[in-house]
Predict the 3D structure of the following.
Amino acid sequence: MQLKPSEILYSQDSINIYFDSRSSNANHKLGETLDDICEGKCSIESIPAITVVNQDGKWMTTDNRRLWVFKELELLGKCVNIQVNVGQSIPEAKRTTKNNWVSIIIRGYPGGDWYQKHENRDHYQIVPNSTRYDDNDSDDNFTHSDNSDNYDSDSDGW
C-alpha cells in the first residue's frame, strides 16, 4: 500500500536526532540522512517501509524518525507516495503525542541542510538537546535485512 507522508500521523511527542544503534544507519542524524537521499548518496528505496495503523480513520506510525525524513522529502518534492506496511495496533504506551499526532519535537539539531530549504515547518519543532523529554522513544530501530516492526520493542532505526 502507498500513502503520502503527509497523510500519516506521528504517534509520539518527540524524537531523538540519531537513528538507533540497531539501524544500518546507526548514529546518523536525521537531517544528514535527508541530505544523503537528496544528494543521491543513497536512495529513498533504501529506507524500509514504515508500518502504519488505521486509528479512527487516520493513519499513524511509531516509525516517527523515518516518517520525519519522508515528510521532509515530500515537502522538498523528492517523493509523492511511500510504501507502507499495514499493522494491527499501536499500544497506548507508544501514543505519547500531545498535539493530535500532527507534529513532533526533535530533541536537538538534526544536522544536514536540506530540511532548511523550504518554509513549511508545521510538522516539527526543534528544541535544544539539553531539554529533557522521555528518552524511551521506541520508534527507530530497523536494519535493512529486517524491516519488520515489533511493537513490543523499538520498531524503527532509520
Remarks:
- The chain is about 15% helix and 20% strand.
- Residues 2-127 form one domain.
